Amino acid sequence: MTKPKILIQLDGDDHASVFDAVVAVDSDIDHLFQYRSVQPEQVRDLVHGAMFTRGPQDLHNTAVFIGGANVAQGESLLRATADCFFGPMRVSVMLDANGANTTAAAAVLAAARHVDLSQSEALVLAGTGPVGQRAVRLLARAGCKVRVASRSVDRAAATCEQVRGKVDGALLTPLATSNSQETAKALEGANVVVAAGAAGIELLSAETRAACSSLRVAVDLNAVPPLGIGGVGVTDKAVDQNGVVCYGAIGVGGTKMKIHKAAIKKLFVANNLVLDAEEIFEIGRELEAAS
To answer: Residue 165: CB partners within 8 Å, gap ≥ 6?
Structure first.
């Protein structure tokens, strides 16, 4: 008899994410166990409870999903979870705190539909944030030259160092974009721009975007007005604006949701998967290839 699929949601927030719970239910799991306000030191007992209640032959029917709004905290929970495993005693685990991995994957896949990333230069605005860092990682892994922008060049440089530790040969340039003049200069010669900033903050004006003759793709991941890139509509999906293909947050949201659901389903294929940014991006590529 096949064991039911159990997803254990570990969330560092005061309330476990309703969004993540709904997606989990829509991904055909049988049971969802949610734990909120989870600290790294509490992970072992929770994960051991998942590991030791089923034999190794049935552990692929149990998986862990790590969510929450704080991505750094989610990364700590992921490390604590991985530290619990030994030999065949393990379950598959996925990190998507704040939707950072699935959103970044969807953004990079959108850009890849229109340009050869290995031959392109990209500017990631708010590149030091949780989604921005992962977009930088995925773009760099695709061979793209990436300009990592932040209000603080020191923070941008720190992100570059962090990404270089994960992506050999990453071609990264840290930049400060604390005003419109710096942003315009950072955009010069770029083929792709991804705005991954906080809600309600315009990072790139419509005028500055229109003045960049090299730009081919603009992806804005902010859904709350004012949007991150001026003139890009929140529902835009491959909308051509004077030679620039534009995507808004909802425009990439459909891909993000497909990736999220497919990744959860993949957790139950085996008991030894760890799905972080690169693995989740690969799931997205497989979906693109099949469509």
So the answer is: none
Q: Please say if the pLDDT value at position 151 is more than 80.
A: yes
Q: Which two tokens stand for residue 75?
A: 């990364």
Q: Is the dihedral of CA 217, 134, 18, 61 positive or negative?
A: positive
Nearest alpha carbon to residue 80 among 34, 48, 126: 48
Q: How do 145-150 and 121-125 pair as beta strands?
A: parallel
143-156 mean pLDDT: 97
Rounded to an integer, what distance in angstroms lies between the CA atom of residue 268 and that of residue 41?
Answer: 26
Compute CA distances 92 → 30, 66, 280, whole Å. Answer: 16, 11, 13
Average pLDDT over residues 126-139: 96
CATH code, 200: 3.40.50.720
pLDDT tens-place string over residues 92-112: 999 999 999 999 999 999 999
The number of angstroms, rounded, from the C-alpha of 55 to the middle of its chain's C-alpha atoms is 33
Number of domains present in the structure of the chain:
2
End-to-end, the C-alpha distance of the chain in Å comes to 34
Looking at residue 291, its pLDDT comes to: 84
Please give the backbone phi and psi of residue 171, each rounded to the nearest 5 degrees, phi first: -100, 95
The 10s digit of each residue's pLDDT in 248-264 is: 999 999 999 999 999 99
Q: What token pair was written down for 165?
A: 């530790």
Same domain, 77 and 126: no
74 within 8 A of 95, measured Cβ to Cβ: yes
Q: What pLDDT does 125 receive?
A: 98
Interatomic CA distance for residues 43 and 10, integer angstroms: 8
Give the pTM. Answer: 0.95
Q: Please report whether residue 181 resides in a domain.
A: yes
